[in-house]
Design goal:
Elements lengths: L9 H16 L4 H26 L12 H25 L14 H6 L5 H6 L14 H20 L4 H19 L4 H21 L1
Helix pairs in contact: 1-2, 1-6, 2-3, 6-7, 6-8
Length: 206
């Protein structure tokens, strides 16, 4: 269950979901699309494996006790991977609407993560007692970005994405419950932040 709800899986869900939507609506280049998904999965796995081999503990995207430097390293890795895949998509143009920026929506959540959890107090003593230090930003913010994507894909294309959005809410509930056995205010705030930035990027850039 944890693997299915890991933050690094969210961009893969987004690309796979968009490919399915486009398959029903428009002609796409299946070879390039499938290649993009495979490349994304491999690069995400490489980021995770490399980080674990260097730092000897779990990903800062999932570990609330992770310090600032591992979070910064992972954020840079995620940003580079998502930007690279976006460049591939932009160059090959296998899709119509939305393909250019559907992965960029996860860069800000990875940056949010730098200022959350144990790293918050390490960065600034003023943050030590704030909501930011009470939970990891990455899991809820990444799922929030996926929720924002499902809302905007429905708005932009006119297809019914309501139940897909409901599934993302269920993912958020399961992830929060598995992490803290409850859904608390910080997790809701991070989820909302991820959703809002995602919707804004897709609304203004597409």
């Amino acid at each position: 269950m944890k693997l299915l709800l890991h933050p690094l899986v969210m961009p893969v869900y987004t690309l796979a979901l968009y490919m399915e939507i486009e398959r029903q609506s428009y002609v796409i280049n299946y070879t390039v699309a499938f290649g993009s998904v495979v490349m994304l999965i491999l690069l995400m796995l490489l980021s995770e494996i490399t980080f674990r081999s260097q730092h000897k503990y779990s990903s800062p995207l999932a570990n609330v006790e992770s310090k600032a430097m591992p979070r910064i390293t992972m954020a840079l890795s995620v940003a580079i991977v998502l930007t690279t895949i976006t460049f591939v998509i932009t160059s090959t143009k296998p899709y119509t609407w939305g393909a250019k920026y559907i992965l960029i929506i996860y860069i800000l959540p990875s940056l949010f993560n730098i200022f959350s959890g144990a790293a918050a107090g390490q960065i600034s003593k003023r943050l030590a007692n704030t909501f930011a230090a009470k939970s990891n930003a990455a899991p809820p913010a990444f799922i929030g970005a996926l929720s924002g994507f499902t809302i905007m894909i429905g708005y932009k294309t006119g297809i019914d994405s309501f139940w897909t959005f409901v599934i993302t809410l269920l993912m958020f509930t399961l992830q929060s419950a598995s992490a803290d056995r409850t859904i608390n205010k910080p997790q809701i705030i991070w989820y909302t932040a991820g959703l809002m930035q995602s919707a804004a990027i897709l609304y203004f850039c597409e």
